[in-house]
Task: structure prediction
Amino acid sequence: MEPVSQSHWEDLGNSIKRHIVFVLGNDFQPPRKDTYYSGLAYCVRDRLIERWLSGQRLAYETHPKRVYYMSMEFLPGRFLKNFIINLGMEAESREALKESGFALEELEEQEPDPGLGNGGLGRLASCYLDSMACLNIAAHGYGIRYDYGIFHQKIVNGWQVEQCDNWLQFGNPWEITRRHFLYTVKLFGRSEPYHDERGNLRYRWVDTDTVDAMACDIPIPGYNNETVNNMRLWAAVSSRDFNLDFFNHGDYVRAMEEKVLSENISKVLYPSDEKEQGRELRLKQQYFFVAATFEDLIRRFKKDHKSFQALPDRVAVQLNDTHPTIGVAELMRILVDEEGIPWDEAWAISTKVFAYTNHTVLPEALETWPVGLLGRVLPRHLEIIFEINHRFLDWVRKERPGDEGLLSRVSIIEEGPVKKVRMANLAIVGSHSVNGVAALHSEILKKSLFRDFHELYPGKFKNITNGITQRRWLLQANPLLSDLITKTIGADWIVDLYKLEKLLPHAEDKAFRTEWMKVKRANKERFSTYVYEQTGVRPDPDAMFDMQTKRIHEYKRQVLKVLHVITLYNRIREGKTIAPRAVFIGGKSAPAYYMAKLTIKLVNSVANVINHDPAMHGKLQLVFLPNYCVSQAEKVMPAADLSEQISTAGMEASGTGNMKFSLNGALTIGTLDGANIEIMEEVGPENFIVFGLKSEEVDHMRATGYRSRDYYERDPELKAALDMIGSGAFSPEQRDLFLPIVQGLLDRGDRFFVLADYRS
Result:
């Protein structure tokens, strides 16, 4: 890009002031962080929109094949710095801000993390959007514009407390709301057969409730190019805003009832599904964004094409997990019911359009819907799913005659006391490609979880290992290390990560290693200050920073890390010497997941004892990081010395946190699971600490019998740590508080092999 002149700096500075005055209605004197953040954001958005509109015009002229990436969640993180970097505006922005007295990083802290996702699934989706824009791929991300996201995690007396994540409280300068751009989404009602003018039997969906989907667009720029793609999120808008009759009769609540109930669809990510109303809301959410997306897709397709035979050549729909899988039935409904295309022809078109990414090896995590619920909310779609299943099973019978067990295993409909629709099975049958997200995960899908489908559809299952974008997770998150790398090998690595191999000849260079250690020390000092501000605990930058930050779940084994910390604590009390260590655990638990929430309480209780013990000063610290999110992760990753990736082998599909830590120079200790295997292959086994049982060893122990208590009885350190937890050493106010954790490990099978892996 051309160097930025002084006049450009002056232009941007004046533009910021103009936005503060004429868009925000504020004075730019005295300078305020919030107004300057918004003013700069609107300036950046101006440049984004210019490129965006230019790219849209070009797309309609050239007719590229478009990718439609459908995901229930996106987790983009803050936009300001990312957009400035991708647009090549960093030097210009810093200079323009000098008069205000604010650093760019100060303004960045004014931006809330968008409440559009929860964890790895959403972060992966956002990395995909960034990468496709950088590769000049015409792509659209589709999801829901949640008003409140998942939740803001607060720690009260060591417990997780969920609070409303009002991330839109002060607006979102990056969002362009298309209030005139509404699609009507149908729900409930009934399916009505009729004969068209040619005498063909067809169906229409009648007597429905409706809710409007309003498009909210956020531009996604590529790095140092002219591509700006679109993340289009749907907000639910009531088709009947206000009932004046109820209002005039004094029933003010009912006057707004329909509006509130309709707009609940886009309020919160993953509403609790413990009750029927929650399950229904989740289903409505999924169909809502799928229906709106396909209306948008079909509208765009019809601008340039008259025959749906061209659809697979012009459109690729990627189903990010099972949440958008109802799209298979929706596209068939559109093609068959609305466009009048014969079933076989429509199915041939549809299956060439869809591809499905599976993100889990846990059978219980594969989404299912009770037939009764799905039939009530989406009656026509259930009919279509039954027809898909009928034709699919007929084909299976021809391929494998007499194998009734196979029919039961692969059926889209699960028979039982409560008949259910298996959405993963529907996704596999309805897609031309299915991928796992790491080499081992993909092999498990083929050899175990979906073995029958793999044998029926040889070649359909592929591996596409998850990835991250280095532009956010190194260039943006770790500017000191980025500058060192660029100074050493040039800037090509920003768009081609394989260029980092050029660093290998410098690995033993004393001057380079010294500079690298200076960077690490500076990042640890910055993180230490941040932790102190957030928790009141000041980690020692001279200690090893040992990080386990991820969603709180039993299979991710935060309890195993706590047992390790307690063991270190006991060794120090016995007079043994250990390398100084500060351990950080962070992540959110699902609101209804008691054992995960109890784990958070355990971490905080153990931390309270250790951090208040004078004997641990300069030796051992434990900190729980509240409200783990993208912006916090951007501070965590650069500071880490050790990355804990200790999930039970065979259960972590891929992981992306492991990649972020590794990219920032942390040493990984991990099970040979998910992407850990591929990380080890890249960095070499000498730079990877292999931990615990292998997946095949876990499978063998499950099959032959596993007695966790045996490990407890023969390992004095393990017994001591567990006994302390069980006896109330860390919960004197309620000594039996953590017994469910201890009992789960000793008496209920230790499902995730915590005790088996403790000693390693």
Observations:
- Residues 1-62+79-111 form one domain.
- The two ends are 51 Å apart (CA to CA).
